Amino acid sequence: MRAPSPTKSSIRNAYWSISAESLIELLHSQLDGLTDGQASERLAEFGANRLQTKRSAGSWLLLFSQFKSPIIMILICAAILSLFLQDTTDALIILAIVLTSGLLGFWQEHSAANAVSKLRSMVEVKARVLRDGVEKVVPIEDVVPGDLILLSTGNIVPADCRLLETRDLFLSEATLTGETYPVEKTPGTLAAKTALAQRTNATWMGTHVISGSGKAIAVHTGRATEFGKVFDSLRLRPPQTEFERGI
To answer: Is the pLDDT confidence value at 194 over 50?
Structure first.
């Protein structure tokens, strides 16, 4: 009989405040990890464990975006007005400046996007998990809720996890909490209102292991992680400034 998979709403509670046994049961997992079949089903349900899901803009759209700023619009209008007033020299100078600025911005952004794409293709981060009771190394994108993660020195934490076992485990969480010193992590249960930086029984996607080892169960992956929430907030368009409104 197929084991049920955890729904997205069922694992949004304060998982650091319930017992490890209850969490494993809630995630429909087991101490020897998920089966390959369960992992495949959850990957289809929750999606790949990555933050960037939107495809990059095409070259033509990127080029067009260089000419959307209010200042560029004003300069284009000034060039049109100069042509209307038969001031061809000023119009050509303005259009040359706008075109040069736009092409330079396009070249820089396009080159940066290509460089990042090549870097991602060369560097593939992997995670150690238990599947069917056997340790396996899988791409970090394939980690799903309920996976048992094995952590050791130098590893990047692939998901938001709850710790089950630790041995002198210290993590760097500076990228998320700003804490410059390594944080000691231990199993246990904490109060539901414990602040993120004080949740010593949990680990966060994107942080990395300084020393020690441990075993953890993945709870949130991808955009549902704490890093995912930060990523989503950064994608929101910032409010207009007084200067932009004035223009």
So the answer is: yes
